[in-house]
Design brief:
The chain is α/β, with parallel strands linked by helices and 310 residues long. The chain folds into 3 domains: 83 residues, Winged helix-like DNA-binding domain superfamily/Winged helix DNA-binding domain (Arc Repressor Mutant, subunit A, Orthogonal Bundle), CATH 1.10.10; 107 residues, Periplasmic binding protein-like II (D-Maltodextrin-Binding Protein, domain 2, 3-Layer(aba) Sandwich); 103 residues, D-Maltodextrin-Binding Protein, domain 2 (3-Layer(aba) Sandwich). Helices cover 44% and strands 23% of the residues. The strands form 2 sheets. Strands 3, 4, 5, 6, 7, 8, 9, 10, 11, 12 and 13 form an 11-stranded mixed beta sheet that branches. A hairpin with a 2-residue loop joins strand 11 and strand 12. The radius of gyration is 32 Å and the shape is rod-shaped.
């Protein structure tokens, strides 16, 4: 059977057992409806109706087919409605990737607003460092990632916020009062860094290469909180981005500079234009942008301003 139209005609007639009324309801001529039923009977290989005088009655075969045909049409109608809702972004599923820091500082508050406005969209989160997130977007493992691509030409992207590089200093470090700290001043300092693959680590490595400094790394970790705990115990200086600062309240970090300029990088909502893009994706991007612009991740809120007396 090539389509459901003939079955719809059959069910419409069977529900009322009246050809002319069914034709009127279906907006089709009675003769055309009769031809469609005859074609369906030829296709099935048995008669669906018997005519007794001016009345129609279902054959035994028609009686057997009717409930199954009615269920099939109901399911097709439901599928059509579901497809329309998915196409309009009212229902569906989105896979979103980000670092733990971004999940805590941006995605957690943004999803409150998104779910309030789009309760039919299911969100699945994946946590990974920057490079892994870009690979996930490339292969379609996530529909959208909050990341920093090296090559924007490979992706579609919408800017969300600027991430600044910050230094977390041990309690006895006398430079706590500084408004900013040159990365050049960290020669031979014991450093506590995120592992390679994180955007923050890329910023650190690039800054030290540019400054011509070989960093002295005493710990590499996936956890900003582990790094800050080591700082608190006096074991070194942690270098983290402003995206992580929102969830760390025990310290007031110092913004880092290179050749006198802040060390920053644009973080964006990134997706692959060659992969399937759910209809709800642009709506989620709008909410993420609104949340970031509302102050959740503004650099002036996450990066400490000048110290008193500095």
């Amino acid at each position: 059977m090539k389509d459901l139209r003939k079955l719809r005609f059959f069910v419409a007639i069977a529900e009322g057992m009246h050809l002319s009324r069914a034709a009127e309801a279906l907006n089709i001529s009675q003769s055309a409806l009769s031809r469609q039923i005859q074609s369906l009977e030829d296709e099935l290989g048995f008669r669906l109706f018997d005519r007794i005088g001016k009345r129609l009655t279902l054959t035994a075969e028609g009686e057997d087919l009717l409930p199954r045909a009615a269920r099939l049409i109901e399911e097709a109608n439901a599928l059509t409605l579901r497809a329309e809702s998915v196409a309009r972004g009212r229902v569906g599923h989105l896979r979103l990737g980000a670092t733990a820091q971004t999940i805590a500082s941006l995605i957690a508050p943004a999803l409150i607003d998104f779910r309030a406005g789009h309760p039919g969209i299911e969100i699945t989160l994946a946590e990974a460092p920057n490079r892994a997130l870009l690979e996930m977007v490339e292969r379609g493992a996530v529909h959208l990632a909050i990341a920093t691509p090296d090559d924007l030409a490979s992706f579609e992207a919408r800017p969300l916020f600027m991430a600044s590089l910050l230094a977390y200093l041990p309690p006895d470090d006398p430079r706590h009062h500084l408004a900013q700290l040159p990365v050049e001043a960290l020669v031979d300092a014991p450093l506590l860094l995120l592992r390679r693959g994180f955007m923050t680590r890329d910023l650190v490595d690039e800054s030290f290469r540019t400054a011509g400094i070989r960093p002295r790394i005493v710990l590499e970790s996936d956890s900003p909180h582990a790094l800050v705990a080591m700082v608190s115990a006096g074991h070194g200086i942690a270098m983290l981005s402003s995206a992580a600062a929102r969830g760390i309240h025990a310290f007031q970090p110092v913004p880092l500079t290179l050749a006198g300029a802040p060390i920053r990088r644009q973080v964006s909502a990134v997706w692959n234009p060659l992969r399937h893009r759910p209809a709800a994706l642009p709506m989620l991007v709008e909410v993420l942008q609104a949340t970031a612009q509302a102050g959740m991740l503004r650099p002036d809120m996450l990066t400490p301003g000048p110290r008193a007396g500095a």
